[in-house]
Design a protein that fits this description.
Layout: H1 17-22, H2 27-30, E1 31-37, E2 43-46, E3 56-62, E4 70-73, E5 97-101, E6 104-107, E7 122-129, E8 135-141, E9 147-150, E10 159-164, E11 171-175, E12 182-185, E13 193-194, H3 196-199, E14 208-211, H4 215-218, E15 223-229, E16 245-251, E17 259-262, E18 267-274, E19 282-285, E20 294-297, E21 307-310, E22 315-318, E23 321-324, E24 335-342, E25 356-362, E26 368-370, E27 378-383, E28 391-394, E29 400-403, E30 411-412, E31 429-431, E32 444-450, E33 457-463, E34 471-474, E35 483-488, E36 497-500, E37 507-508, E38 528-531, H5 533-536, E39 543-549, E40 556-562, E41 567-571, E42 580-585, E43 592-596, E44 609-610, E45 624-627, E46 630-634, E47 648-654
Antiparallel strand pairs: 1-7, 2-6, 3-4, 3-7, 5-6, 8-15, 9-14, 10-11, 10-15, 11-12, 12-13, 16-24, 17-23, 18-19, 18-24, 20-21, 22-23, 25-32, 26-31, 27-28, 27-32, 28-29, 29-30, 33-39, 34-38, 35-36, 35-39, 36-37, 40-47, 41-46, 42-43, 42-47, 43-44, 45-46
Length: 655
């Protein structure tokens, strides 16, 4: 009998080709990695993904107790005989997930083998929303004869994962990088195998895919679900041409040699498998730890708890893709297939509070989480009352940190400074126990937390590859950066280099020195900047981190002003005033002054801090106040903040 598709992304979901042409789509609307802690009761997960009206699939896995994976979807619904387990052959079983909402899903208190809400256990969830050119779900009843299955992906599938739901069976995986006679099995370590009865030796099209007669994909009377993934199909961003998912392959370049994979974007999620040998499937994401230091891994074919390995053993993200190796734990010359998903957000922010958070707190001397009100990617923490350097850490650099007032290389944070995996929280960063830098008891702190977002802030890690000329560094700011801050991570006694792009000069964040025209940036574009390696005299192999800021309407302003010796208002185009301001004099010596509305900015005597110095907070000499359009400067108390012309200043203000 013919096979009937019971649901797809463009049918009941209300998303078809016409909506695709008129509505801008963004990765943050269709994919989420959300971390949570079980409570042993009922729980609502709010990840911003509309599942109840758009449809999709949720994949859950505990990180700490060795429970089975659990997959649920809106097409088959929830309840008895609905949950699937990627690491077993089992038929669908009772679901831990109880419902889908317009912003996530709900969980119950089940304690079965697929339980995903045990009290105090930590979990990861990956949500895939149905959307043309990204992801689709199809179900059918098997016929036992070769046939085609219609889908609504709106593109040729890059990978298809099929599971029989009514009885025990292997998970069948199609991937575009294999022959149409080959298949992989998600629940085992097996290498790619050949079998014409799986995909009927037929390559999928933008309308259908084929199944043969094998019981894992098409037994007569069996029930099946397929999760269908696109490959470089566009469909996203304002122009509808941006890719957000890639199903590709790589081959290791040899022992101790890295292999670079270019996607055209920075990934936030990767699932991969060696095709020619019996090895585990493996998955990484940037919320649990997928950075330039470590990688937190889970195995789709195993119930094992999460484990952390050096990033160089597997994958390290770049601005345009990822690097495999040089540790090459999957094989020096292995063929590896992968599914990669783009990092978000893709939308340009309109509110400063969505991408920048600040808070003041007292140290506890015990593990704590510093929050900013949004998912954060970088943090500056400053002790207000003790003369210690301020910590600058980020999700992309992992467990390491730098000090803005120091030329020292990056330090691997111990448990007293940052927790073992400091960024595996949905809001903020986890600090350690007794360090004066971050959380000593009875000490007071100010915290600045930044989220990477188009047009506002981006971060890039890179390695020096040349000593002649400039090295082009790709970024994802989507606009030309106006302020670039660079620090060598692996080389000691190296200054922080600050480049105000419009002024075409260079400053040092850790010093008071005036701007120099020596070795400025060159060729600053919407996709890259060129860093003056030859002029700075550093060595091949040195690792760096760069922080990029731009003016984003209503959110941030990178600019300059000329002092007038009295008072003046700096118009940033804001409507609710600046919450954070960084100011540096460029024509002469001057400190890097920081101000924020948590500590004041309401009267001239409210305090400031210095990024270039470990000195404690200065309580009565602020001279900067917030006003509705930005901020105001006054030299009555602190003359250096607004000296008479020709005194020149640069600033970064955030609403």
């Amino acid at each position: 009998m013919p096979l009937v598709q019971t649901r797809g992304a463009a049918s009941a979901q209300g998303f078809g080709e016409f909506a695709q042409a008129t509505v801008a789509n963004y990765i943050e609307e269709v994919f989420s990695c959300f971390l949570y802690t079980g409570n042993g009761s009922t729980q609502t997960i709010t990840n911003g993904i509309d599942l109840s009206t758009k449809g999709g699939m949720v994949w859950l896995k505990d990180r700490s107790s060795g429970q089975n994976h659990a997959l649920s979807d809106t097409v088959r619904g929830v309840g008895s005989s609905k949950q699937l387990q990627s690491n077993t052959t089992s038929a669908a079983t009772t679901d831990t997930l109880t419902g889908f909402t317009t912003s996530g899903f709900t969980l119950d208190a089940s304690f079965g083998l697929g339980a995903q809400n045990l009290n105090t256990v930590t979990y990861a969830s990956w949500t895939f929303r149905e959307q043309p050119k990204f992801f689709d779900i199809v179900t059918w009843s098997g016929s036992g004869i070769n046939t085609t299955i219609p889908h609504s992906l709106g593109a040729v599938p890059g990978s298809i994962i099929v599971k029989r739901t009514d009885t025990a069976a292997d998970w069948a995986v199609y991937h575009r990088s294999l022959a149409n006679t080959q298949y992989l099995v998600l629940n085992t370590t097996a290498a790619a195998a050949t079998g014409a009865t799986w995909w009927n030796s037929t390559t999928p099209t933008s309308a259908v895919f084929s199944v043969g007669t094998d019981a894992s994909v098409n037994a007569s009377g069996g029930t099946y679900v397929a999760y269908v993934f696109a490959h470089d199909a566009g469909g996203f961003g304002l122009t509808g041409t941006d890719n957000v998912i890639s199903c590709g392959t790589l081959t290791g370049s040899g022992a101790g040699v890295s292999t670079t994979v270019t996607l055209g974007y920075e990934p936030q999620f990767i699932i991969a498998k060696v095709t020619g040998a019996a090895q585990n499937w493996i998955m990484f994401d940037n919320m649990r730890g997928f950075d330039n230091t470590n990688a937190a891994r889970l195995f789709p074919n195993l119930a094992n708890a999460e484990s952390t390995v050096p990033a160089g053993n597997y994958f390290t993200p770049t601005a345009t893709g990822f690097v495999y190796g040089p540790g090459n734990s999957m094989g020096d010359t292995a063929n590896i297939i992968y599914i990669a998903i783009r990092r978000g957000p893709m939308k340009v922010p309109t509110l400063g509070t969505s991408v920048f958070g600040l808070s003041a707190r007292s140290g506890t001397g015990a593990n704590a989480t510093v929050t900013g009100g949004q998912t954060d990617d970088a943090v500056i923490i400053k002790n207000r009352g003790s003369a210690v350097g301020d910590l600058f850490a980020s999700r992309l650099t992992g467990t390491g940190y730098l000090e803005t007032s120091s030329t020292a290389a990056e330090v691997a944070a111990g448990a007293t400074i940052l927790q073992t995996n400091p960024w595996d929280v949905m809001d903020g960063v986890k600090v350690g126990t007794t360090s004066t830098i971050t959380n000593a008891s009875a000490n007071t702190y100010i915290n600045y937390l930044f989220r990477r977002a188009p047009g506002f802030f981006d971060e890039v890690c890179f390695t020096q590859t040349t000593t002649s000329g400039a090295q082009a560094i790709a970024h994802n700011l989507t606009v030309a950066p106006e302020l670039v801050i660079v620090k060598p991570r692996s080389q000691a006694s190296s200054s922080w280099e600050v480049f105000p792009v419009a002024l075409n000069n260079r400053l040092n964040l850790n010093a008071t020195t005036a701007a120099s025209t020596y070795a400025p940036l060159s060729s600053v574009t919407t996709t890259s900047f060129s860093y003056p390696m030859a002029d700075l005299g550093w060595s091949i192999g040195v690792t760096y981190v760069a922080y990029l800021f731009a003016t984003c309407a209503g959110v941030s302003k990178v600019g300059s002003y000329t002092g007038n010796g009295t008072t003046q208002t700096i118009d940033c185009g804001f409507t609710g005033g600046a919450r954070f301001v960084l100011i540096k004099r460029t024509d002469s010596t001057g400190d890097w002054y920081t101000y924020d509305t948590i500590r004041g900015m309401t009267v001239l005597t409210d305090p400031y801090l210095l990024l270039n110095s470990a000195v404690i907070e200065t309580a009565t000499l602020g001279s900067v106040t917030t006003v509705s359009t930005g901020f105001a400067v006054d030299n009555a108390i602190l003359a250096g903040i607004n000296a008479a012309s020709p005194a020149a200043y640069i600033f970064l203000a955030i609403a």
